[in-house]
Amino acid sequence: MNRNRLILNIVLVIIIYFAVQFACAFIIIAIHAVCKLMQGQTSPESLVGNVIHDTMGWVLIVSSVITIALLGLLRKADLKTDFKWNGCEARYIPFVIVACAAGVIALDILNEFLDLPDIIRGEMSNMSGSVSGALAIALFGPVAEEVIFRGAICGGMLKAGVRPWTAIIVSAVIFGCVHLNPAQVPFAFLVGLMLAILYYKTGSLIPGTVVHILNNSWAVVMMNIYADEPDITFRQLLGQTSSNIILILGLSLSAYMFHVYWRKKECRTTNADREQ
What we know:
This protein is mostly helical. 78% of the residues lie in helices and 0% in strands.
């Protein structure tokens, strides 16, 4: 695959990602708004805020399912292959998941030092209080993002013969940028690096998807427990000393895991095929 076609494929995947979200938001919000007005359950003045609050979870769930289906049908993502273990020995997986999850928590703490504005924290906290919102954040969102950014974008570059580190870094940059929220961009980039490396080494989306679900599920639990304090941080919750210890241990464990796991020859079978 030549360079221009590869770039076009990446752009197409990103367009599908955003276009499906916007289309689902417009249709679901419009239908819900009309139903609310016809039933007289809300006034036109409060319509926008109420409808968005009620429907955002469903918008993300439906758009996630449609996006995954479209990428599969258009052969931009190889769902059957990506959701298999692909020959990588299962005995390594529990350690990998625990180490990656520890690394994600450490990166979250590290991200707090930047103190960047979080423009969607309140909306995310409100969404996590509903069943549909919690499922969208904790389950459907992570699965869709792994298929899009690791499977379709990173995997697509690997299959096209792009060097592994180039594919890993480019996919992580895109993953960070599409979050748009300043407080999430650096964190998403670093997590994207970690999950892309994991995808490259295992040839599977399963371990990264589990880590992603665990991270987002933890966020949903915390947002519900501390609903009255949406701006609370790990450092405030655990204290400076404990946070620093968790930061060091989490980064050390994940770094050790990647150092050891990168050298496992039995985990390179699928990726060797990709590079050919």
